[in-house]
Automatic annotation (TrEMBL):
InterPro entries: Amidohydro-rel, HutI, Metal-dep_hydrolase_composite, Metal_Hydrolase. One of its GO terms (molecular function) is iron ion binding. CDD domains: Imidazolone-5PH. Pathway: Amino-acid degradation; L-histidine degradation into L-glutamate; N-formimidoyl-L-glutamate from L-histidine: step 3/3. This is Imidazolonepropionase.
Amino acid sequence: MSLVITNIGELVTNSGSGRGRLGIVEDAAVVVADGKIAWVGSAADAPAADERIDADGAAVLPGFVDSHAHLVFAGDRAAEFGARMAGEPYTGGGIRTTVGATRDASDDELRRAAGRLVTEMRRQGTTTIEIKSGYGLDVEHEARSLRIAAELTSETTFLGAHVVPAEYQNDPWKYVSLVCGPMLAAARPYAKWIDVFCERGAFDEDQARTVLSAGKDAGLGLRVHGNQLGPGPGVQLAVEMGAASVDHCTHLDDADVEALASTGFDCMCADGGHTTTVATLLPGAEFSTRSPYPDARRLLDAGVTVALATDCNPGSSYTSSMSFCIALAVREMRMTPAEAVWAATAGGAQALRRGDVGRIAVGARADLMILDAPSHLHLAYRPGVPLIRTVLHDGVP
Ligand code: NIG
Ligand code: FE
């Protein structure tokens, strides 16, 4: 079955010879077949296909790649949010509240709750989703969270090192040993990545390095939560260990920015070495914790590869909307609309070291969206407005 999209006002390809960073092509058509992009070119030359979608002059973009989300949890923390908006600070301490609720939930409750969020994300244009564990924090419940995550995505991340659970509070190294031993072994069949929250109050540099080394030895790719609540060793550690991404990056010094820039830009070519450590910015977290936003301009001007993601979780950022994150990045972080759209699509793909998503090019997955707007600019220009008209995931509307 093939399908042609015609009457496209603006095609954002993120690749090839199109205009600007987004590779914009005007008067384009796209053909998808067997779940892949089969043809991209001038509308006048478009081949025939079994079906046709008339985009009616709208913009067509790659689907969003949300490279950072915590979707397997029970309950919510609306009261904590309310207290924060009345002046309480965010400390990450509420993570343990969600751990309690998650351990108490049944498999089906967790599966339904996570599935609902995935559906919510897809409706809003997200076609690739990374899902972390991290609210189980014991062998049984971390493995269960990852098993459920693996039913929903191939981008699964073991975050047993989210915080030290209450029962190990007095012996964090004992918990690190559990994470690196039996918990990693139980999580391994379902996980592609390992992540650690390297932050004061969570895991220090040595503990985080131990966790990442164990994950690397087990064949997992590396990701880091770092420099969210204050300056710290997370970014340098991520670069030193060759992590695909370090996420939050809110409190950086010059050496952090230089270290990230030194990892270069990944062409995502088939024979590329994939050595870039992407800085993944999560402005939903600063919004929901009423904290200063990361300095995206400084990172971009230094040549760092930047991604945007939702960080969807019940504590620090309960949004599933990549469009909202784009609007925040443009208004509050001085990213241009083109930089923000690139970061939410191609940037996310780089953070997951994926060359087959985040762009519209022959051979890439047919993951794309048709906006209810003529240009990508509208995603930031019309914040809060549901502008995603049609989403194709694996070529299927
Ligand atoms: O990415 N920083 C650590 N973890 C999550 C927050 C989790 C929570 O508050 O429940 C984050 O912001
Ligand atoms: Fe997170």
